């Protein structure tokens, strides 16, 4: 399995979560063994010049924090893009580290249906309107090279248009949406056959006092005999043992009992966070 993340240029430079996940990328329990980041860099974000949006020349500079290789490629050259992507995949599979592909391109229309980019970027959009679209540019090259004929190209375009038109026509007759078709992994316990949520009531989760006492005693004991532990820690364990004996529970012991009862059922529990290893809370 290989993870691929698709980013916009403004989001890549501007969202803290990108920087944070780079810093998780090589941690022992969090790594994906290398993610391929594809940045669709239209050089404008929503409407802002890069010089007004970030301090560095490239949006991808945040990836330098983990020394990830960064490939800047002209998105008007499909063969160069394919080459760079295969190099990125090979890098990831060889070294199991993150890699970034920066597709340097442009956005032909506005950010959305209401946006007119000529308002804020008149010079840039005069240039963009003069650009030959990449599909036509590449098709002309292939036809000139004799790789495909004009007829083959036109048939391919017509075939794709037909797929879109037929799907659009079918969509008008759709009266019912099946939620389950949109779920990556339909959980049978949560949804019925039509994809609608089942009843949200919880099954009873209580356990016997005997089991709680057992977990409390284990949680306040030291697993190895004659093992010298820190005096501060032995005080905590003693207090926990007293609580269990007195049928009294604080927050930390309650959590112990919750985790312990799940473990007793053979269900794996993984905790993560700053203070998990030393069990501060």
Automatic annotation (TrEMBL):
Q: Which residues form the Dehydrogenase E1 component domain?
A: 2-179
Superkingdom of the source? Eukaryota
Q: What's an example Gene Ontology biological process for this entry?
A: tricarboxylic acid cycle
Q: In this record, what's one Pfam family? A: E1_dh
Question: Sorted alphabetically, which keywords does the UniProt record give?
Answer: Oxidoreductase, Thiamine pyrophosphate, Transit peptide
Q: What does the record give as cofactor?
A: thiamine diphosphate
GO molecular function terms noted in the UniProt entry: oxoglutarate dehydrogenase (succinyl-transferring) activity; thiamine pyrophosphate binding
Does the keyword Oxidoreductase belong to this entry?
yes
Q: Which Gene3D superfamilies match?
A: 3.40.50.12470, 3.40.50.970
Keyword Transit peptide listed? The answer is: yes
Q: Name one GO cellular component term.
A: oxoglutarate dehydrogenase complex
* Similarity field: Belongs to the alpha-ketoglutarate dehydrogenase family.
Which protein is depicted? OGDHL protein
């Amino acid at each position: 399995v290989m993870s691929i993340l698709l980013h916009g240029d403004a989001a890549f430079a501007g969202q803290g979560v990108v920087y944070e996940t780079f810093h998780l990328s090589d941690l022992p329990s969090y790594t994906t063994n290398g993610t391929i980041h594809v940045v669709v860099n239209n050089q404008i974000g929503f409407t802002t010049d890069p010089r007004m949006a970030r301090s560095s020349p490239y949006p991808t500079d945040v990836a330098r924090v983990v020394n990830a290789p960064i490939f800047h490629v002209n998105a008007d050259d499909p063969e160069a893009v394919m080459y760079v992507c295969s190099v990125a995949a090979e890098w990831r599979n060889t070294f199991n580290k993150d890699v970034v592909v920066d597709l340097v391109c442009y956005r032909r229309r506005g950010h959305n249906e209401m946006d007119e980019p000529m308002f804020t970027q008149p010079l840039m959009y005069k240039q963009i309107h003069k650009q030959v679209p990449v599909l036509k540019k590449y098709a002309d090259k292939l036809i000139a090279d004799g790789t495909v004929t004009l007829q083959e190209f036109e048939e391919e375009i017509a075939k794709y248009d037909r797929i879109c038109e037929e799907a659009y026509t079918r969509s008008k007759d759709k009266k019912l949406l099946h939620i389950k078709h949109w779920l990556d992994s339909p959980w049978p316990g949560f949804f019925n056959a039509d994809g609608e949520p089942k009843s949200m009531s919880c099954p009873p989760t209580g356990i016997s006092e005997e089991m709680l006492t057992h977990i409390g005693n284990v949680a306040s004991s030291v697993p190895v005999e004659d093992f010298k532990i820190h005096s501060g820690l032995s005080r905590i364990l003693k207090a926990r043992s007293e609580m269990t004996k007195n049928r009294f529970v604080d927050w930390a012991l309650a959590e112990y009992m919750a985790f312990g009862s799940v473990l007793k059922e053979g269900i794996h529990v993984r905790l993560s966070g700053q203070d998990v290893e030393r069990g501060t809370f």
